[in-house]
């Protein structure tokens, strides 16, 4: 009779499956302006985020094409309950926070560089707040992934970037 036990350990944010490889690409996010100022219907969200109907309420915004070595996970408010109660918010959402006031500025990445996704945010954030000196803080409806650059000028660099900036192979 043969009995074997195999144990491994990993941190919470490591990917437990086979590595996912991809290529860095340009990225924009869609922002539903009403979402941060009032409660919006699912139909309005679908028009912006699913159907991608660009309008004066649903805008495209370029994100900085950067890799940050550090990222914080936090809970922040995102939407107000409605216009009648401008100080009342819907609750807290999981955010990934990049704060260049407290950490190094992001390193611009090379479009087309091959990367490997090595981790996801443990809080499964679907929103990112970016704080940069000299700029207002910005909230983006997207998430971050931790990558390792496999080739190009930043080969070996590990850090956090936008999930949509990695085109999976």
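-> sequence recovered:
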């Amino acid at each position: 009779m043969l009995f074997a036990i195999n144990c491994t350990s990993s941190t919470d944010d490591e990917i437990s499956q086979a590595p996912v490889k991809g290529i860095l690409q340009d990225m924009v996010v869609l922002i539903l302006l009403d979402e941060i100022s009032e409660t919006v219907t699912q139909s309005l969200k679908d028009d912006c985020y699913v159907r991608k109907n660009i309008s004066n309420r649903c805008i495209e915004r370029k994100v900085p094409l950067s890799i940050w070595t550090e990222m914080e996970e936090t809970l922040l408010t995102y939407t107000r309950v409605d216009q009648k109660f401008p100080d009342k918010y819907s609750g807290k959402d999981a955010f990934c926070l990049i704060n260049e006031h407290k950490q190094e500025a992001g390193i611009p990445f090379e479009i087309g560089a091959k990367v490997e996704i090595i981790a996801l945010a443990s809080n499964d954030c679907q929103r990112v707040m970016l704080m940069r000196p000299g700029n207002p803080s910005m909230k983006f409806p997207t998430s971050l992934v931790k990558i390792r650059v496999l080739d190009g000028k930043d080969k070996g660099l590990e850090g956090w970037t936008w999930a949509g900036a990695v085109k999976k192979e």
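Helices lie at 42-50.
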